[in-house]
Amino acid sequence: MGRQNLMRQQDLDGKKTLSARRQQIDVLDSELVRLLNQRAAIACEIAALKAISGLPAYDGDREQQVLDRIAKQNSGPFNQRSISAIFRAIIRETRLLEAQHMREQSGPKETGVQEFG
Predict the structure, then answer these.
(1) Residues in contact with 113: Cβ distance below 8 Å, sequence separation at least 6, in sequence order
(2) Which label site among 72, 85, 100, 108 has the fewest CB atoms less than 10 Å from its CB?
(3) Roughly what angle, to the nearest 10 degrees, separates helices 80-106 and 60-73?
(4) Domain residue spans of the chain
(5) Which CATH class is domain 2-106?
(6) What's the Cα-to-Cα distance from 31 to each of 34, 35, 38, 45, 74, rounded to whole Å?
(7) pLDDT per residue as tens, the chain (117 positions)
């Protein structure tokens, strides 16, 4: 009986740990959403500045700067390929948002972003 009780206690501790870790993930996910939306809001401000200046939404040099900076800051456990893929997706979605914002600000002008449909 002693061993079974110990095994049950370990199971309960494991469930508590699993639950606690999932709660930590939930908090981090909420923080990521908040930060991504904050990043997107700043990108929309940049888009407005680009629209006023007549600049295209896409700036390949800037995108590469971001990816290079992120690669240098990455200490794992994501490998460089994975972290780059995540940020390419963030940049792609932000670029689409910028293009939409630029269209709203300046009307039907060329934004420098190809849209697929």
Answers:
(1) 56, 57, 58, 95, 96, 98, 99
(2) 108
(3) 150
(4) 2-106
(5) mainly alpha
(6) 5, 6, 10, 21, 19
(7) 566 665 565 566 667 789 999 999 999 999 999 999 999 999 889 888 888 888 887 889 999 999 999 999 999 999 999 999 999 999 999 988 887 876 776 655 444 554 433
